Amino acid sequence: MVCGGHWVHGTVANPGVDRNNQLEFFSKNKRNVLPPVSTGSKTSQRNHLQAITLTHLYIMTRYTLVAFVSITLLLSLAGCSKSNRPDGFPPVYPCEITILMNGAPLKGANVSLSSSLESRWHSGGITDDQGIAVINTYSFAGAPEGEYKVLVSKYETPPPREDSPDGSGEGPPPKPLVQEKFRSAETTPHSCTVTKGGQNRFEFAVE
Questions:
Q1: Is there a domain that residue 163 lies in?
Q2: Structural domain containing residue 65
Q3: Residue 170, domain member (yes or no)
Q4: Neighbours of 198 (CB within 10 A)
């Protein structure tokens, strides 16, 4: 808008106010603020002042409400995350175990961590196409700090048989693809130690 051939921040400048004062006001109040009025009746000036005050109150209320809702939501999410953990659940740390067979990644193998300490928390995972098992404990990613025996197992399920002796159509029992010594904590040659600050990435070969 133009005032006396000059632009003032896209808003009509008031001819009854000193130009320097106008520029200072508009530079401090670029958004959501009405320009001052120095001419006219006292009633119009009072109404204008009330409009500015209401504008400020609206802006402050809106942003205060947004901040309150955001903080409340974050606190709720944090509370839910904690409440999902059972009593006595220990801290867990990211852990990945790669299983190889004949030099190639073994897909679909069950990997379990067996601790010599008594614990009610089971840690384990299933290998993916790359032979990597991401270890989880009670549905949380990671494993508690400690020393473990690494157990690996995989079974092949034969297809159903139409000529089964009992007529049930069931085939022979699942066939283990990993040797028994890797499936038992007493005989497995593999072990690992999960630490708080370590990478906790291990690789083992099975037969």
A1: no
A2: 2-83
A3: no
A4: 13
> Is residue 169 situated within a structural domain?
no
**Could you tell me if 98 and 122 are in contact, meaning their C-beta atoms sit under 8 angstroms apart?**
no
The CATH number of residue 115's host domain is: 2.60.40.10
Compute how many other C-beta atoms are within 10 angstroms of the C-beta atom of residue 147: 13
Number of domains, the chain? 2
Q: Is 118 left (phi over 0), alpha (psi -120 to 50) or beta?
A: beta
- Backbone dihedral region for residue 95 (phi beyond 0: left; psi -120 to 50: alpha; all else: beta): beta
Domain boundary among 83, 102, 134: 83
33: alpha, beta or left? (left if phi > 0; alpha if psi -120 to 50): beta
Answer whether 141's CB lies under 8 Å from 92's CB: yes
**How would you write the pLDDT of the chain (207 residues) with one tens digit per residue?**
444 444 444 444 444 545 555 555 555 554 444 455 455 566 666 666 766 777 767 677 776 766 766 776 666 565 544 557 788 899 999 999 999 999 999 999 999 999 988 778 899 999 999 999 999 998 899 999 999 999 999 999 887 766 666 556 566 788 999 999 999 999 999 999 999 999 999 999 999
* Same domain? 99 vs 37: no
Cβ contact 110:124 at 8 Å = yes
40 and 58 housed in the same domain:
yes
Residue among 175, 202, 90 nearest 138 (CA): 90
